Amino acid sequence: MKKILLSLGAALLLAAGAQAQTSWGLKAGVNLGKYSNFGDDQKNNTSFHVTGFADVPVAANFSIQPGVSLQGKGTRFFEDYEGFGYGEFSRNVMSVEIPVNAVYWIPAGSGSVFLGAGPYIGFNVSGKERLRGDIGNFSGQTEWDLDFSGDDRDMNVIDAGANFMAGYKLANGFLLNAGYNLGLTQLVPGFDNKVSNRVWSFGVGFQF
Hints:
Porin family protein, 1 helix, Beta-barrel_OMP_2, signal
């Protein structure tokens, strides 16, 4: 499955490269992630993203952007046990994603405002959970790897959903961008409620 997804991403980029007006870009920045239906006391889990993409014009002020992205996601909790100690739990997951976004460009000043949206499919490739604090007989920090396979897996491999993005491209190609990643698939097997990714992202990039 992993090879199929990566091959699909490569095929999209190669197809895009065949277009005469295609430009290429690279974006990177900060992710702030949580999960849906995973508790009201979650905090933003800070991670990062790096995305390579092609921009393929298909109409005036309109383009399609296929890409390949490394995305850090997860969630974090902090609990104060009112005199009995404190604890912080975090889950950090790295995912390889293939987004395909439709982008609309609005000329503004010397550059362009852009608005975009589209689907993505992701493959969770690694993850860790960490607990640190001072709770009862436990004091310190411990961590363990997430299991993505088998009947007793901690997390499902496939993550899919929708991207939303907005930003500004300067005349020299420099990008300022923000986005929202709306997961639509169940991440936690055997959980009654659907647990999905909710990730805000902020970053910079360059399109050339």
